[in-house]
Amino acid sequence: MDIKEKLKKLQDTVKTLEGVVIAFSGGVDSSLVAKVCYDVLGEKALAVTARSETYPAYEYEEAKKIAKEIGIPHMTIDTSELGIEGFANNPPNRCYFCKSELFGKLKEIAKEKGYKNVADGANLDDTGEHRPGLDAARELNVRSPLKESGLRKADIRQISKYLNLSNWDKPSYACMSSRFPYGQTITEEKISLVAAAENYLRSIGLRQFRVRHHDTIARIEVLPEDIPALLQDGTRKEIVKKFKEIGYKYVTLDMEGYRSGSMNEVLNKKG
Q: NAD/GMP synthase domain location, by residue (predicted)?
């Protein structure tokens, strides 16, 4: 299918929602869902962003900006993942707890305001990854228009660019909880540490990266093509200096480079 056919299929899927509350993070996926839902359903579409300890302030500001750009009605709610029983212990199905609470709250909003469905930004590529949140979506009958339309990440970026969404090429983002090895307790203090480290890397011009938190060790993942720049003596020393000021004892660079969900590699190797 060409881009217009892919968009038409997504629009047809969205029509079946009739009225929808969208789990809106401001990322590429949920932004496309919000855009097409608003274009097709108008005021029968509502974008809802959940603020929490694991959702950085800069992401929230970006979400507000994109919602305004789209024109869709936008609502903000406050959640606390760390307050969910079992979440802070960081088990492999951590995301299930988070999504269950989030989708539950969105279902309540939909019922209260008269929207027929709740939708998320899951796409076809997500089905091949470790995504416990998909189980929560299925249990609560949350619709996934991108996945239902057979769209993958590359399709989503292509359609978003075609529709002139300003964040079509925004780097992939994941909840801050994904920075911690499974089984390591997640706290606000640890999240703040990682956030400060990632804010610094963003300030020096990096776009796609992660800081993985291993107790006193920071493991930096960047795109392979960015590795040489970080190893330049002046840059390397500045990063080490800054990370130690933030609170890390040791600063490492992962030579394999950035890859989404690298903390899941230990799960894939079990058995």
A: 10-80
CATH of domain 176-268: 3.30.70
Edge-to-edge strand list for the sheet holding 209-214: 209-214, 217-222, 250-253
Structure tokens at 32: 């496309």
Catalytic residue among 37, 95, 98, 175: 175
Q: What is the CA radius of gyration of the chain?
A: 19
Specify whether 175 is catalytic.
yes
CATH superfamily of 3-162: HUPs (3.40.50.620)
- The residue with tokens 């703040």 is 192
Q: pLDDT tens, 76-90? A: 999 888 888 888 899
The answer to pTM > 0.85 is yes
Q: How many CA atoms lie within 13 A of 195 on its CB side?
A: 16
